[in-house]
Design a protein that fits this description.
Helix content: 40-55%
Structural class: alpha/beta
CATH topology of the largest domain: Aspartate Aminotransferase, domain 2
Shape: flat
CATH class of the largest domain: Alpha Beta
C-alpha cells in the first residue's frame, strides 16, 4: 500500500509526550515539538490492523510471551543487515534503556567506570549517574563537520582496571554517524582485549540514509561476540515507541543468564499486552513501510540542508548517515547556550532538544527531529528564518556600518591596522581556514577549538579590556598566532565588530547627538552591542522583539527586565513595538480563509450530532450567502468562524486594540449585526477553560458577520462568533497567528465532540 507521509495529523490531546508535554520538557507550550525521537507518521497498516483485531477481542488479561519474536528478529536482521543471529541469544525486553539499566546493575558496582562517547543519547549519561557509577567520556572528535572516534583515548580508558562496561551508540544519536565496519570492529576489539563488556545500542540501525550500510557490532567473531550485547527494537523504525517492545541479543550464555536473573529481580519481565504482537508484526509484515519511509526522510534531510545553506548559513547541519535526528552546529551564531536555546524555543518557537543534554560537547548544538510531514518542517524553518534575519543579519549589519563610519576614532587603540572604511569581516569559510592556520600552535584540535571559543566570547563581551584576560603562556601563544594571521588577511573577526564600535564611540568620549534607535531583541545581542545600544539611545529606543530575555540572574546583560530596565537606567523613552505573532501567517484575505481552513479540518472527523458546514459568500455585501444557508439548513444553533480586527499595532491605545494576535481566538458578545446567545456564549467560555484553550473577549462592537442573518432566520437561531484576530484585516497583506487558528479548531471541535449541547 501507499503511505502518505505528507499527511498532517493533529496529535494534541492524545496523551502524547511529544505534543502534550512540550511545555514541561522543552519550556514553551507554543513551540513546534521537534525534540523527542517520536515520529509524526501513522504506523504501518499491518500493525494497526493487528491492534484493532486484538481490541475487538475485548479481554486484556496478563500476556504470555511466545518465541515468535525470536524468529521475527532473526529474519529481519538477516534481511536488513546480512547477519545471522541465533534465536537462543535473544531476550525480549520493554525497551533499550531498560536493557542498559539492567546491564549496569548486573555487571558493575558503584564506582566502576562506564565508557560512553559524548555528545551522546542522554539516557546513557543518566543511567551511569543514577547508579552512582563513574562516567568515562571517550569524547568524539569533531573536525570539518564530521565526527570520528578517538581510538587512542578509548584504548587508554578501556585499559583502566576500573573500566567495566562501554555503551556504544551504533548508529550514533545525535551526531548521525553510521560507523564503518573497521570502526565497529576496532571498538569491539579494544573492549574484548581489556575485558570491558560492550553494549551496542542499534535501535536506529534500520534508518540508513543515502546508501549507508549498518554493521552490527562483533557478530561473526566468536571472541568479540561473547563480549557484546546488541540492542534492537522496531519502535523508531515503525513509530510505535509507545508499545514498548525490544530485544537484547546476548551470544554469551553466562552473560545472558545473569541478565535474565537481574530482569527477574527488577520485576521487569512483564510487557504490555500489545508489545509482542506489534513487535512481531513490524518485523514480519512491514517491509513496505520502511521502503517508502527512507526516501521521504532523505527528502526532509535534503530540504533542511539546502534551506540552511541558502538562508541561514550560520546554522550548519552535520550531514547524517542515519536516523531522523538532525544535529545542528550553531557555533557560528556566537550565542551562549542559554541564548541559543532561547533563540530556538522561545523566539523561533521550535521545540528542539538542547545540545548540552548530550554532554558539554553539545553546548553549541541542538538536535532536531525531522520525522514529520514536510509542511511541519517548512513551518519550523520559516519561523527560524524570520528570527534569524532580524536578530543575526540586522545586528551584524548595524554594527558593521557603524564601525565603518567611525573607524577613524579608534586610532592605535586596538587592531588599528584593519580599521579602514573598507575593512572586511571574515566569513564562515575564512574562519574555518583560519582555524587550520592556527593549528601551528601544536595544540590538539579540540583544545584549540575551545580556546578560540573563549577568545571570541571574551572579545564580544569586551572582557579582553582587562590586561589579565590572557593568563597562561599557551593562551598568549595562540592569541599571538591568531592576531598575526588576521593581520596578514587585514580583516576582523565577526565578534570584533560590535566590540570595536563600542570602544571607538564610548572610550573616545565622542559627543553624542540625540538619537532614537531601533534595535532588535536586547537579549539576543552581545554585551558589547548592548552597551553600544545604551550609549546611542539617548533620545529614545524602539525595541522590536521580546521584552523579556532569558539569562542567568547573575549576568548584568541581558537582564530579565529587558528594555524596561534599560529605560529606567538610561533615562530615555522606550517604546515596545508590538511583537509579531509567533508563527504568523501573512496572506491576502485571511478574513475569512482562516474560517474555511478550520472547517476543512473539522470535516475530517465524525461527531455525535448532525453538523452542516457552510462556506458562505457575499458577507461583505449584505450577508446574502448566510441568509440562504440558514433558510435551507434550519439549524438549532450556529457557530460562525471568521477573522476579526486586531488593532494591536504601534500607537494604538488599549481600548482601540479590539483584540490581539497570538492570544487566542476571540469570542464576541455582540456586534452591530448580532448578539451572542447567552447559553451558547457561556458554554463556549466554559469549554475553553476546561480544555486549557487560550481565548480572549472581543473588546468592540463594530462590524458584523454572518451571525446577523443566521440569528434572525426562521424562528430565531442561537449563534455565537469565534474569530481569529487579524491585523490589517482588509489590506493586501493581513497577518494572523497560526496558534490562534489551531486553537479555533480545537475549541470548535471540542464543542462538536460533546454533541453541540449548551
Amino acid at each position: 500500500m501507499h503511505y502518505d507521509f505528507d499527511q498532517v495529523i493533529c496529535r494534541k490531546n492524545t496523551n502524547s509526550s511529544k505534543w502534550d508535554n512540550v511545555k514541561a520538557r522543552v519550556g514553551n507550550a507554543d513551540a513546534i515539538p521537534m525534540w523527542v525521537a517520536d515520529g509524526d507518521f501513522v504506523a504501518p497498516e499491518p500493525i494497526r490492523r493487528m491492534l484493532e483485531e486484538r481490541v475487538r477481542h475485548g479481554i486484556f488479561g496478563y500476556p504470555y510471551r511466545t518465541d515468535a519474536f525470536r524468529s521475527a528478529t532473526k529474519r529481519w536482521i538477516l534481511k536488513q543487515h546480512h547477519v545471522e543471529l541465533q534465536e537462543e541469544w535473544m531476550v525480549f525486553t520493554t525497551g533499550v534503556v531498560p536493557i542498559i539499566y539492567t546491564m549496569i546493575q548486573a555487571f558493575t558496582e558503584p564506582g566502576d567506570e562506564i565508557i560512553i562517547q559524548q555528545p551522546v543519547y542522554h539516557p546513557f549519561i543518566h543511567a551511569i549517574r543514577d547508579h552512582k557509577r563513574t562516567l568515562s567520556n571517550n569524547a568524539l572528535r569533531y573536525e570539518n563537520g564530521r565526527y570520528t572516534i578517538d581510538f587512542e583515548d578509548l584504548a587508554q580508558r578501556a585499559a583502566r582496571p576500573e573500566a567495566k562496561l562501554m555503551v556504544f551508540c551504533n548508529p550514533h544519536n545525535p551526531v548521525g554517524r553510521c560507523w564503518s565496519k573497521d570502526e565497529v570492529d576496532r571498538v569491539a576489539r579494544i573492549c574484548a582485549e581489556n575485558n570491558v563488556l560492550l553494549i551496542s545500542d542499534e535501535i536506529h540501525s534500520d534508518l540508513m540514509l543515502f546508501g549507508s550500510r549498518h554493521t552490527p557490532a562483533a557478530i561473526g567473531n566468536k571472541a568479540l561476540e561473547d563480549n557484546t550485547v546488541l540492542c534492537y527494537a522496531p519502535t523508531k523504525t515503525f513509530n510505535i515507541a509507545g508499545l514498548r517492545g525490544s530485544c537484547a541479543v546476548i551470544p554469551n550464555p553466562a552473560i545472558r543468564k545473569r541478565f535474565e536473573y537481574q530482569l527477574l529481580c527488577n520485576n521487569s519481565v512483564q510487557e504490555c499486552l500489545f508489545s509482542l504482537p506489534a513487535y512481531v508484526t513490524a518485523y514480519t509484515q512491514c517491509d513496505e513501510y520502511l521502503e517508502q519511509l527512507l526516501p521521504y526522510l532523505e527528502g526532509n534531510v535534503t530540504y533542511l540542508d539546502a534551506f540552511l545553506r541558502a538562508h541561514m548559513p550560520k546554522i550548519r547541519l552535520v550531514r547524517p548517515e542515519a536516523t531522523f535526528l538532525m544535529w545542528l552546529d550553531c557555533s557560528a551564531l556566537g550565542l551562549d547556550k542559554d541564548a541559543l536555546y532561547d533563540f530556538f524555543i522561545n523566539r523561533c518557537l521550535v521545540g528542539i532538544s538542547k545540545g548540552e543534554g548530550f554532554g558539554t560537547e553539545g553546548e553549541q548544538f541542538v538536535r532536531m527531529n525531522i520525522a514529520c510531514p514536510r509542511a511541519t518542517l517548512e513551518k519550523a524553518l520559516q519561523q527560524m528564518l524570520r528570527v534569524y534575519r532580524a536578530d543575526i543579519k540586522t545586528v551584524d549589519a548595524f554594527c558593521t556600518a557603524l564601525l565603518r563610519e567611525n573607524c577613524h576614532l579608534l586610532g592605535e587603540d586596538a587592531r588599528g591596522h584593519a580599521l579602514r572604511p573598507d575593512f572586511r569581516v571574515l566569513d564562515e569559510n575564512e574562519l574555518a581556514v583560519l582555524m587550520e592556520d592556527v593549528k601551528v600552535s601544536g595544540l590538539k584540535p579540540g583544545r584549540l577549538r575551545e580556546m578560540l571559543k573563549f577568545f571570541y566570547k571574551s572579545i564580544s563581551d569586551c572582557a579582553d579590556d582587562d590586561e589579565r584576560w590572557l593568563i597562561t603562556a599557551e593562551e598568549q601563544t595562540v592569541h599571538a598566532i591568531l592576531t598575526e594571521n588576521l593581520e596578514a588577511r587585514r580583516a576582523l573577526l565577526p565578534c570584533e565588530v560590535s566590540s570595536l564600535a563600542y570602544r571607538g564611540l564610548v572610550k573616545a568620549e565622542v559627543e553624542r547627538e540625540p538619537l532614537t534607535l531601533v534595535a532588535d531583541d536586547f537579549g539576543s545581542l552581545s554585551k558589547a552591542s548592548q552597551r553600544l545600544v545604551r550609549h546611542l539611545a539617548t533620545d529614545g529606543l524602539v525595541a522590536a522583539g521580546r521584552t523579556l530575555a532569558s539569562s542567568s540572574s547573575e549576568e548584568p546583560y541581558p537582564c530579565f527586565d529587558g528594555f524596561r530596565a534599560l529605560a529606567d537606567e538610561a533615562d530615555c523613552l522606550v517604546t515596545l513595538a508590538c511583537e509579531r505573532p509567533a508563527a504568523a501567517r501573512e496572506s491576502r484575505a485571511l478574513d475569512d480563509r482562516v474560517g474555511c481552513a478550520v472547517m476543512l479540518e473539522l470535516l475530517k472527523h465524525d461527531y455525535p450530532c448532525n453538523v452542516a458546514f457552510a462556506f458562505n459568500v457575499q458577507e461583505e455585501v449584505g450577508l446574502r450567502g448566510a441568509m440562504a444557508t440558514a433558510f435551507r439548513v434550519q439549524p438549532d444553533c450556529a457557530i460562525i468562524l471568521e477573522g476579526t480586527t486586531a488593532n494591536d499595532t504601534i500607537g494604538a491605545r488599549v481600548h482601540e486594540e479590539i483584540c490581539s494576535a497570538g492570544k487566542g481566538p476571540a469570542l464576541s458578545f455582540m456586534d452591530r449585526a448580532s448578539i451572542a446567545h447567552p447559553g451558547l456564549f457561556a458554554r463556549m467560555r466554559a469549554l475553553a477553560q476546561e480544555r486549557n484553550i487560550p481565548w480572549q473577549l472581543k473588546r468592540g462592537t463594530t462590524g458584523g458577520n454572518d451571525a446577523g442573518s443566521i440569528q434572525r432566520s426562521q424562528g430565531g437561531v442561537a449563534t455565537v462568533v469565534v474569530s481569529v484576530p487579524c491585523r490589517y484585516i482588509h489590506g493586501p497583506s493581513s497577518v494572523c497567528a497560526l496558534s490562534d487558528v489551531e486553537n479555533q479548531y480545537r475549541w470548535v471541535k471540542a464543542f462538536l465532540d460533546e454533541g453541540g449541547t449548551f
